[in-house]
Structures are given as C-alpha cells and as structure tokens.
C-alpha cells in the first residue's frame, strides 16, 4: 500500500517504531537480550556498539534478529579500503539493518564499498543494509571551535553522499545543517538527543525537535533502559517522534515498497 510521509528517511519501508533506535549500552549479552525481549513489541531497532559486540559477537546480532529486532551495528569500521569492504560485506551477511563506517577521505573507497555490498546482495539474495558515514566530532567549547566542527561534519556528510552512501550518524545539533546540505533522500541518524527525564515526560519535546529539523532516526539509550517504566518511556518518546513528523512542513513524498540495490 502506498504511504506518504513528510521527509527523507520515510521513503524507506521501515515503520514508525523503527525510528527509535534503543542503544544497548551494556556489556552483558544476557542483559541485552533480556531488554530486547522486554521492549521488542514497541521498538523495532537496537543499536549494538563496540563494547557489547566484543562481549556477544556476531551471534548476539543473530539472536536479536531471531527475536524480531532490527540491528544498527555501530562499530564505526575504519581500515584500509580493502579491509573496509570486507567488514561491510560481513556486516551485510549478518542481516543488520544499518551499519556505519569512518570515512577515510577517499570518495572512491566509499563508492567501492557501497558497490561491493550491492553486488553481494544481488549474488546472495540478501537485503541491502543502509550504509552510514560517521559524522560526529568531539564537543568543543568555544564558538569558533564549534563552527569548525560543524563545517567538518558537513564535509563528511557531503563526502558520504558523493560516495553513494545512504546517510550519516551525527549529533542532534548538526541535523538541520546536514539535511539542508544533503537533501531529502539522505538518511540522518541522530545521536545525543538530550531528553529531559521526569514524571510523565520522558522526552519533553526533544525528540520532536530533532525529527522536525530533519532526523530520520533517533538513538536513545539510558533514558529508556534505566527508566523505572521503560515501556512508558518508549511510548512517550515514540509519541514525541510522531509529533515531530506532523510538525515537519516539507512536502510529502511517496514511500516505495522496494528499495533498489
């Protein structure tokens, strides 16, 4: 069925529940899977970072998938072009929904990685994951330093777009500039959304603001899994995401049921 949504990332066939990516910021595989089982009915995607991956390995990703969850594999692959491509292919074979890489300044290498992933998907009948560039720099205190940081983030985002990658992982404060620079079809995964926790208001508008200025996905960790009522926190954040969608004034575009390789 054709659907219409107001901004870029929703040209994909993912559902609203996958716009919230719960970050599994623990090192214990058992604890991570217990949380996935507990909240999986409300959350469609989970972030697996380096610490948890070191403890759980590829099998952890498979276990999350078996439980019906999608995986954002946030390992920030960074290596020679040849090894980068190999890592990207293996992540694809794991069945993750998206993974990220550190751009090395060579657009040709990014394009080669993207093309090899697409080739393997066609040859092996696999779903092609979203490939993101990491466009996050350490927080800086001075106004000039922050401006330089933003310029660098935009350079990375443009490099990713020119290399044929699907989008970027970036800080929430950079979302609006990246969206303006890279267009409507570029995926933006926002990290560092500052949620104001409190009774009856787990998100307090922060999630809506990030979505409204152009984020497609939000990564949220401890405000959910440390909450006294994680399910309630998820519902509130998801409702805030929906408010952000409704507030986004860009013209609607059609959601395609099939994503080309």
Structure description:
With 261 residues, this protein is α/β, with parallel strands linked by helices. The protein has a single domain (4-254), classed as TIM Barrel, CATH 3.20.20.70. Helix content is 45%, strand content 17%. The chain has helices spanning 29-39, 50-66, 81-94, 107-124, 143-162, 175-182, 206-212, 222-225, 230-247, and strands at 4-5, 20-23, 45-49, 70-77, 98-101, 130-135, 167-171, 187-191, 217-220, 253-254. Strands 2-3-4-5-6-7-8-9 form an 8-stranded parallel β-barrel, surrounded by 6 helices. Strand 4, helix 3 and strand 5 (98-101) form a beta-alpha-beta unit. Helix 1 (29-39) packs across helix 2 (50-66) and helix 7 runs parallel beside helix 9 (230-247). The chain starts with a strand and ends in a 7-residue tail after the last strand. Mean pLDDT is 83; it is low at 1-14, 199-204 and 251-260.
């Amino acid at each position: 069925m054709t659907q219409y949504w107001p901004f870029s990332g929703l040209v994909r066939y993912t559902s609203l529940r996958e716009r919230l990516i719960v970050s599994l910021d623990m090192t214990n595989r058992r604890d991570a899977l217990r949380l996935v089982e507990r909240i999986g009915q409300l959350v469609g995607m989970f972030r697996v970072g380096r610490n948890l991956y070191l403890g759980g390995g590829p099998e952890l990703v498979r276990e999350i998938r078996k439980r019906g969850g999608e995986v954002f594999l946030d390992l920030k692959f960074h290596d020679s072009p040849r090894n980068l491509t190999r890592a990207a292919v293996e992540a694809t074979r794991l069945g993750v929904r998206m993974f990220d890489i550190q751009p090395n300044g060579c657009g040709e290498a990014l394009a080669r990685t993207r093309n090899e992933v697409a080739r393997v998907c066609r040859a092996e009948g696999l779903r092609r994951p979203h490939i993101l560039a990491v466009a996050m720099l350490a927080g800086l205190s001075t106004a000039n330093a922050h401006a330089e940081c933003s310029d660098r983030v935009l350079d990375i985002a443009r490099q990713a777009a020119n290399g044929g990658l699907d989008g970027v992982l970036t800080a929430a404060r950079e979302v609006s500039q990246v969206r303006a620079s890279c267009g409507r079809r570029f995926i933006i995964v926002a990290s560092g959304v500052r949620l104001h926790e409190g009774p009856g208001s787990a998100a307090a508008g922060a999630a809506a603001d990030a979505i409204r200025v152009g984020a497609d996905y939000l990564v949220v960790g401890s405000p959910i899994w440390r909450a006294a009522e994680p399910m309630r926190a998820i519902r509130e954040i998801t409702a805030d995401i929906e408010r952000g969608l409704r507030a986004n004034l860009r013209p609607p575009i059609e959601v395609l049921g099939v994503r080309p390789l």
